[in-house]
Recover the amino acids of this structure.
């Protein structure tokens, strides 16, 4: 039946055409008076215009829906990050106090011997970030970064934080592996991925912004993009390793196990008194 129908007769199958023109009457073979009727031609134009309008609306709706979906992915808060932020404040305070005691023990050991070590868990670090660091060190991170948290699973480290910038507001998640380079007090990070919410971000596209943020925090950061994963190379700032009077700290190793990280180092006393004592020996 469809093979014997003329193009105009397909209006029987088109609800839009029928709504505008009404049903077709008369023989289906040969020209009809409708073909030259100006009212009929005007109706065809109305059908075409309506179809074009519907098509445009569908395209606009699709684009808007896609943008909303991308925006929802970009601003979505990862579940693990939400769970960390929901931790009981008293527990966070207790874990933060444990972190500070570990730091104090490390400092005391430095005064007694050259070799020292520090072992802390991600829960202790996060407790300190949520309490003491937030209250006593408000300038520890750039103004655009807030609520940083860390998750350690053996060698894999995940860092998440809120970002509040003009161009973007949401949660940024960085996953990778941290290692100590052969250069004195320079740490490397194999960056496996960076996400804005649930949306992956190419590292190369944000490397410049990350370097600028690190510079604001007095960290010297540079990138190596050649391997399987980009590598961020971070030189420890002087205020962390320079003790004054020629004394400095040397990072010897960074080890990960379970949800803990162990930092092993050595104190170097190059003051005139220390040098003289070594010479006397």
């Amino acid at each position: 039946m469809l093979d014997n129908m003329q193009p105009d007769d397909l209006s029987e199958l088109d609800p839009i055409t029928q709504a505008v023109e009404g049903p077709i009457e008369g023989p289906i073979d040969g020209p009809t008076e409708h073909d030259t009727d100006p009212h009929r031609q005007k109706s065809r134009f109305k059908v075409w215009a309506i179809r074009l309008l519907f098509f445009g609306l569908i395209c606009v709706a699709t684009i808007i829906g896609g943008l909303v979906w991308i925006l929802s992915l970009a601003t979505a808060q990862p579940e693990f990050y939400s769970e960390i932020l929901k931790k009981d404040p008293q527990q966070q305070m207790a874990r933060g106090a444990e972190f500070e005691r570990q730091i104090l023990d490390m400092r005391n050991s430095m005064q007694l011997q050259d070799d020292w070590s520090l072992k802390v868990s991600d829960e202790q670090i996060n407790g300190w970030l949520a309490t003491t660091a937030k209250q006593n060190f408000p300038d520890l991170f750039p103004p655009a970064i807030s609520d940083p948290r860390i998750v350690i699973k053996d060698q894999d480290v995940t860092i998440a934080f809120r970002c509040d910038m003009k161009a973007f507001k949401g949660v940024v998640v960085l996953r990778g592996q941290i290692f100590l380079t052969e250069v004195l007090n320079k740490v490397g990070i194999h960056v496996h991925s960076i996400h804005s919410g649930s949306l992956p971000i190419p590292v190369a596209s944000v490397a410049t912004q990350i370097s600028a943020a690190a510079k604001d925090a007095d960290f010297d950061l540079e990138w190596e993009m050649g391997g399987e994963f980009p590598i961020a190379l971070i030189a420890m700032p002087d205020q962390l390793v320079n003790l004054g009077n020629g004394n400095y700290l040397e990072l010897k190793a960074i080890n990960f196990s379970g949800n803990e990280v162990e930092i092993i180092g050595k104190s170097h006393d190059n003051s005139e008194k220390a040098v003289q004592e070594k010479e006397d020996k």
